Amino acid sequence: MFDQAINDMKKNIKEEETSTLDGTVDQHGRPAIRRRTGTWFAGILILVNQGLATLAFFGVGVNLVLFLTRVMGQDNAEAANSVSKWTGTVYIFSLLGAFLSDSYWGRYKTCAIFQAIFVVGLVSLSLSSYIFLVKPAGCGDEQTPCGSHSSTQLGLFYLSIYLIALGNGGYQPNIATFGADQFDEEDSKEGHYKVAFFSYFYLALNLGSLFSNTILSYFEDEGMWALGFWASAGSATLALVLFLLGTPRYRHFTPRGNPLSRFGQVVVAAARKWKVEVPQSGEDLFEVSGKKCSNNGGRKILHTHGFKFLDRAAIITSKECTMQAKECHNPWRICPVTQVEEVKCVLRLLPIWLCTILYSVVFTQMASLFVEQGAAMKTTISSFHIPPASMSSFDILSVATFIFVYRQMFWLHPCYRRVLDPLVTRLRKSSPRGLTELQRMGIGLIIAIVAMVAAGIVEHFRLKHPQKTCTNCDGSSSLSIFWQVPQYVLIGASEVFMYVGQLEFFNAQAPDGLKSFGSALCMTSISLGNYVSSLLVSVVMKISTRDEMPGWIPGNLNRGHLDNFYFLLAALTTADLVVYVICAKWYKYIKFEGINSEDNNGEFRV
Fold first, then answer.
1. Pfam families per the record (predicted)?
2. Residue 422 has pLDDT above 60, yes or no
3. Distance between CA 448 and CA 492 in Å, rounded?
4. Quick one: pLDDT at residue 510?
5. In 570-604, which positions are buried (b, 16+ CB within 10 angstroms) versus exposed (e)?
6. What is the value of pTM for the model shown?
7. Shortest CA distance to 129 belongs to which of 139, 114, 143?
8. What are the Cα distances from residue 68, in Å, to 7, 278, 533, 550?
9. Within the chain, how many helices (H) and strands (E) appear?
C-alpha cells in the first residue's frame, strides 16, 4: 500500500512536469510545462485583454464618422472615405506586426510593444480633443457646430488617430495567434480548446465593442467626445496591464526567421534549374531528416501536386548535394520540400483571401453608411434620442447569439447535429466535425448579400417618408431607425461564418513559421475592403453626379439614392460568391507529417 502511494506520487509529479508536445517554451526559453503554463488561465487573460482593447478601439472608431462631420467639418462622402482609409490603414499595419512577430520579436513582445503605442495614441487624442478640438465646449452634438482648426491642430489629430491605427493594427493579428498558442494542438483535449478559442475570441471582440457602441456612443453623440476618448484610453491601459500580469503563465513559439528570405531561396533555386525535368512524385525530392524542418524549426509539410515548377527547388543534383548524405550546402541552390510547400501554401491561400475582400466592403458599411443612414431616420422614442452608431449593438448581439448557436449545433452537442442532418448532410460529408471553414465562409457571403438587399429596401422606404425640412439631414425621415435592425442582425450573422471561419482557416492552413501572417491575412482583407469601399464610393459619386443630380450619396441623403449603392454591393458580392466557390473547390489543404486531420482532406461541396 505504501509502495502504491509512492508510485502515485511519482506519477503525479511526472504529469506535473510533462512538457507540451508542440514545441512551445516558457518565458525563460525552457520547454513549457503543460500544467504550469497556457490553457484557459492564459487564454481567459487574453480574451479579457482583447475585450478591453476592442472597447478602446471602437470607442474611437464607431463614432469617428460623426466626429469628422460634426467636429472636423467634413461632409458625409468625405467622412465616409476618411473612415474607410483610416480603418484600412489599421489593418495594413497588421502585416507589419505579423512580420515582426514571425521573424524577430515573437508574438508576446510584439503584442506588448504595439499595445503601448496604442495607449500613447489614445492619450494624445484625448488630450487634443479636450484642449482644442472640441471647442467651444459642448460642441459636436447635433445642434452646436465646432469652430475651425489650425493646421497644427489638424496635424496632431491625424497623428493621434494614426498612432491608434499603428498600435491596434500591429497588435490584432498577433493576439489572436498568441491566444491559440496557449493550447497544444498535438494534445487531443487542448486541440479541441484551440478551435473553440477562435469563436470565443471573436465573441470577446464583439462584447468589448458593445460598451463602446452603447454607453460611449451615447456620450459622444451628445458632444462629450473628450470623456469618451478618455474612457477608451483607460480601457486600453487596463488591457495592457492585465496582459503583462499574465507573463509567467504564457507559452511561446520562438520566431522562425525572415520568411521573405525563405521564399526568395525557393524562387531562386527553382529558377536556377528551370531546364531540369520535374519528377512525377515527391519521393525523389530533397528533405531534411528528423521530425522538424531545419530551415525554420517547424513541422514538416508533406509534398503536394500543383505549382510543380517550384518543385525544381528541391531537386537534388550533383551541384548542390551528395546523393548519399543529402547534405545541403547552399540554400539558394536547393531547398527542402517543406520550404517549397510553404510557398505553395501561401500561393493557394491568396485566391481565397482575395475573395474575402469584397465581403469586407460590405462589412465596412456598418461603420460608415449605415450610421449616416440611421442619422437620416427618426432617432427618438418619446424624448429619448438613440445615437445612430449605437445601432451596431444589434450586430454585436447577433454575433454573440450566432456564435453560441453555431458552437452548440455543429461542435458540442451531437443531438443538435442529428436534428439538422437532413439540411446539412451534403455539406458535412467533407468533415465529421461539421461545416468546414471554407463552407462557413461561403455561407457568410450569402448572408452578406441578403443584408445588402435588406439595407437597400429600408433605404427605399426611408426615401418615401421624408420630412418637409432638412437642415443637416438628421431626422429627415419619419421612418424609425429600428427598421435598420434586420441589416445589422444579418451582418452579425455573416461575421460569425466569415470572420470566425477566416481566423480558423488561415491559422490552420498557414505554415508554422507564418501563423501570425495567417491571422494578418484576415485583417488585411478588412483593410483592402475599406480601401475598395472608399474607391467605390468615389467612383459611384463621380458617375452618378450630374447637373441637377447630387449623386447617390450626397450630404442630404433625401436627395440621393443610397438604396442603389446597397443593391450594387449585393450584385458585386453575388459575383464574388461565384468566384469564391470556384476557388474553394480548387483549394488543397496543407498536410503536416504525422498528423491525420480530417481537415487535411477537407473539400468544398455545394
1. PTR2
2. no
3. 9
4. 84
5. bebbbebbeebbebbeebbbbbbeeeebebeebeb
6. 0.78
7. 139
8. 69, 58, 18, 21
9. 19, 2
